[in-house]
Amino acid sequence: MNxxxxxxxxxxxxxxxxxxxxxxxALVFEEQAISYRQFGDRVRRQAxxxxxxxxxxxxxxxxxxxxxxxxLATMFAAQALGAIFVPLNFRLTAxxxxxxxxxxxxxxxxxxxxxxxxxxxxxxxxxxxxxxxSESPADGWRHLDSERDAAEPLAAVTAVDQHDVAVIMYTSxxxxxxxxxxxxxxxxxxxxxxxxxxxxxxxxxxxxxxxxLFHIGGxxxxxxxxxxxxxxxxxxxxxxPVGVLADIERYKVTHMFGAPAMFLFxxxxxxxxxxxxxxxxxxxxxxxxxxxxxxELYGARGVDFCQGYGLTETAPFSSFLTPEWAAAKLGSxxxxxxxxxxxxxxxxxxxxxxxxxxxICLRGPNxxxxxxxxxxxxxxxxxxxxxxxxxDIGYVDEDGFLFIxxxxxxxVISGGENVYPAEVEGALYKHEHIAExxxxxxxxxxxxxxxxxxxxxxxxxxxxxxxxxEFAEPMLARYKLPLRLHVVDALPRNPAGKVLKFxxxxxxxx
Length: 510
Description:
CATH class of the largest domain: Alpha Beta
CATH architecture of the largest domain: 3-Layer(aba) Sandwich
Largest sheet: 8 strands, mixed
């Protein structure tokens, strides 16, 4: 049986780009520009190094660290061998990392120097066969840079099928242990085709990546798409609103992906009004709905938002709201991509008509292969017709535009009425004293659950429950109005910018 060709291997695509456009800038990292020729050579040498260390087709190669060119080179090097890349969340504890590393059966791990100590207590229990350090050599750690530079470049990339797994990305695990979503080479290629047909794209784009690359938003909303296009990625170790604003102006950034909170924090900096945003074609926003106030604020600066909806399991795009619909369909997550479908179902998996709320289900070539070592969870998530059940509640209007109401698990049932926190949050965000808001349900003897607003206020501002209810009453039915108010310094968020509501519930129920 003949092995398939390389058209789906992500590493082969990037290396082909390096061959076609060697002098173009692939990456800018901490003011150092790396050309496609240089980056391609780095990937080939690291692939050969991994092969010499015993990495074979299907083996798992992990990276633990902040955003860095090493992460991207490690991913492409592994994929060049037909191996599978496992990006790790640098905020996890040693115990949490140990579970993921052993669950994935990681063969080789590369760790940022700053995080070597995190793994120290867990290392004797890990399954890894070899450990690389990113910068300086240490006892028991092989030195990536020196060994890679001494290796010969890999001559030929291993051919893969579009259904072969390219990345195992572990979901956040807010309920239960994290699960590894198996994303294939085809999933990522088709996601990027869908994105190109929705947003366009050019090799002259300058894409700023500040979202964490271990998250699907940071990795595959814009970053991998840029390598396919031959564009330039300005890579930041982590998100810093002041640094982002400076780099947008310095590098004439055209696109950036982020969660609404990231763009909110940028707008709150003193430098925001003076920052030259004229190069920006649009910002891609995901992870949560964009408040109307934020759309208007950036719109006044000539910057449009392209909103998208998706999950790790969908690689991630499942719908797009492009700028021409931003006003007419305000609050919508948009329409399905060209090569993907959406439907809304009831509790018995029956399709619902337009306007009726139910679970959002998604289907297309971007849907994951399944969960690593979890056939039970895979069968629960993907039905017999191939529809992925998202766990999100929403509806589709008469024009086919998707509206997200909330997570099934986040819905508040107060006095027998369903309250969708995102709707309440959208109203409360309009209050001039509120910088951040999250709405959760807390146990209540009378109502079952009490609609509870948790807010962070702008400096020097105050707010009472009575004043908040009075403000929101014209916009919300009475049963949706907050019954409780908690003021905090800041909302807990994961690295992707999503508010950790389960943390708030744990804190406020104690």
